[in-house]
Amino acid sequence: MNDIQGSYNTAAADYHAILKDYHRADPFEAGALDYFAALVPDGPVGDLGCGTGRITTYLAGLGLDVFGMDLTPGMIEVARREYPDLRFEVGSLFDLDLKDDELAAALAWYSLVHTPREQLPTAFAELFRVLRPGGVLVHGFKTGEGSRPLTKAYGHDIDLQVYMYSVPDIAALLADTGFVEVATLTRAPLPAEKDAGQAALILRKPE
User: Fold this and answer.
1) Using N-to-C axis directions, what is the helix angle for 167-177 and 120-130, rounded to 10°?
2) Cα Rg, the chain, nearest whole Å
3) 1, pLDDT greater than 70
4) Closest CA to 27 of 182, 165, 200
5) pLDDT per position as a tens digit, 71-93
6) Which candidate, 201, 194, 92, 111, places its Cα nearest to that of 146?
7) In the prediction, which pLDDT does 11 show?
8) Which of 90, 146, 94, 147 minimizes the C-alpha distance to 120?
9) Closest to 183 in 3D by CA, of 24, 34, 51
10) What domains can be seen in the chain, in order of their start residue?
11) What is the pLDDT of residue 128?
12) Which of 127, 131, 98 is nearest to 112 (CA)?
């Protein structure tokens, strides 16, 4: 099973405590986000699948006009408490409450790590829809093959499935949606990550 809302509602506070400064420990993550931020045109930026807002606040510190959205009310509750100066709302990447061409940029930063492949085109189409022409997307995901259950994490019993994908496969799905590649950044797995590497694809919606 894959109880995303239930699992993250349970683990939200401890998830934040463990991961809130992760970008400081992983130069790959900070480098990819900094590169993305440097490409963003003026306008609103959606951190879509923002979790507890750690990336949202990082990008705000870089000067972006960014807000966060997440499927899980418990994660949004923590985000609002920890970062009261930023806007956070509950919402789904599969049915975004945003207008066509509304955003200058968007992040799906590991937001779809629990999403099976057959559902990815729907989410990618929504991201394409809400970006304005010339808008920038960064999609972060785990690289590898297949999926694995995640039943205990962040100090809690949870019920999640973690999916890993090849970079060429995800790049092809995004190209089929209409996105144009700007940059592809990858990192091999660290010892603690077992078989899952990391990737960040930066793309643009054509003018």
Assistant:
1) 50
2) 16
3) no
4) 200
5) 999 999 999 999 999 999 999 99
6) 194
7) 84
8) 94
9) 34
10) 4-204 (3.40.50.150)
11) 98
12) 127
The rounded distance, in Å, linking the Cα atoms of 179 and 169 is 14
- Is residue 138 within 8 Å of residue 107, measured between CB atoms? yes
Integer Cα distance of 44 and 70 in angstroms: 16
CA-CA distance, 73 to 80, in Å (whole number)?
Answer: 10
What's at 158, amino acid-wise? I
Pair 132, 205: CB distance under 8 Å: yes
Residue 204 has pLDDT above 70, yes or no: yes
Predicted local confidence at residue 22, as pLDDT: 78
Would you list the DSSP string of 91-149? -BTTB-SS-TT-EEEEEEESTTTT--GGGHHHHHHHHHHHEEEEEEEEEEEEESSSEEE
The lowest-confidence range among 32-41, 111-120, 138-147, 150-159 is 150-159
Q: How many residues does the chain have?
A: 207
Helix then strand then coil, % of the chain, to nearest 5: 40, 35, 30
CA 202, CA 199: separation in Å to the nearest integer?
Answer: 10
Rounded Cα distance between 197 and 131, Å, is: 28
pTM recorded for the entire structure: 0.94
Residues 6+ apart with CB under 8 A from 92: 71
